[in-house]
Amino acid sequence: MKRLITFWIEGYFYRPTVAQKLLSFFLYPLSLLYCFAAWIRYVSSTPKDFGIPIVSVGNLTVGGSGKTPLVSALCALYKKPAIVLRGYGRKSQGLVVVKDDSAIVCDVSHSGDEAMLYAQTLSHAVVIVSEKRQSAIELAKSMGCEVVFLDDGYGKHSIQKLDLLIDVETPNSFCLPSGPYRERLWSGKNVIMVDENRSFIRRVQVQNETSKMALVTAIARPQRLDPYLPEVVAKIYFEDHHFFMIEELEAILKQTGATSLLVTQKDFVKIAPFNLSLSLLALELELSPELIDTVREYVHAKKD
């Protein structure tokens, strides 16, 4: 049931039917109230300087936009970065250090899939999950980090930061609940808009490719993977941040006759311990020189 609801909502926001468009129209008065409340929160916030450069990678809409690979690519530019994120889907609460400057110190159930992906692929980074980003930033600073990257931080208006905003196309331009927008690009809010082909280029490779692969993924808006997929025998989608069970994955292998499950890096950190036959859809970003220079100039200026 949860999966059906999730996919219905994604369709409502990004591929609406006629009935869903009609529902969106009737909910529009609530969207005006929601957007007004978000604006009040913005104008009543005073950005705080935490004494450390902070770079936010975010987007205005709900659902996936490719923040994780962009944060990873930016982190590679620095010797001791920290990544701070909420940790959606984790089975823990409060502030949790996922990885310190030497080792991963919790499991994926406590970190969430995105945080564990950062921890496993960025050996030089500190990774912290927390609902209260300010506390995590203070901790990262005390641990000697040189820069903090906020995953999904646009709406944290009380934090002084450089805002990188990923442009996401959608036919529905309304705020919640009529549309997918959590906030608007508020007047007076300085951001750097980033988009594919201008700000970065995606490089996708299939590792451990087999003859019959079944795509299994638990990311938001999984159809955005389609341009990068090789031929697969099936596509099985779960709701974003779903924690897989070995029985359901074994059933997929049996039902599809697949020789391996094709998974994203975000899915891999949860599935790898099951020792199933896996193929990996590995994604890296090549950043534009302009974006690199923009971030470096901001970080350098904040350090001085």
Architecture blueprint of SSEs:
Elements: H1 2-14, H2 18-26, H3 28-43, E1 54-58, H4 67-75, E2 81-85, E3 96-99, H5 108-111, H6 113-121, E4 126-129, H7 133-142, E5 147-151, E6 162-166, E7 192-194, E8 200-207, E9 213-217, E10 234-237, H8 246-256, E11 260-264, H9 265-271, E12 278-287, H10 289-303
Parallel strand pairs: 1-5, 1-6, 2-4, 2-5, 6-7, 9-10, 9-11, 11-12
Antiparallel strand pairs: 3-4, 8-12
Helix pairs in contact: 6-9
What brief labels describe this structure?
single chain; 304 residues; alpha/beta; Rossmann fold; 3 domains; 7-stranded mixed β-sheet; 5-stranded mixed β-sheet; 10 helices; 34% helix
Explain this structure:
The strands form two sheets. Strands 3-4-2-5-1-6-7 form a seven-stranded mixed beta sheet, with helices on both faces. It has a five-stranded mixed beta sheet with strand order 8-12-11-9-10. The chain contains ten helices and twelve strands. Helix 6 crosses helix 9. With 304 residues, it is of the alpha/beta class. The relative contact order is 0.17. The protein has three domains: 2-41, no CATH class; 45-172 and 181-199 and 288-303, 3-Layer(aba) Sandwich (Rossmann fold); 202-285, Rossmann fold (3-Layer(aba) Sandwich). The chain has helices spanning 2-14, 18-26, 28-43, 67-75, 108-111, 113-121, 133-142, 246-256, 265-271, 289-303; strands at residues 54-58, 81-85, 96-99, 126-129, 147-151, 162-166, 192-194, 200-207, 213-217, 234-237, 260-264, 278-287. The chain is globular. It starts with a helix and ends with a helix.
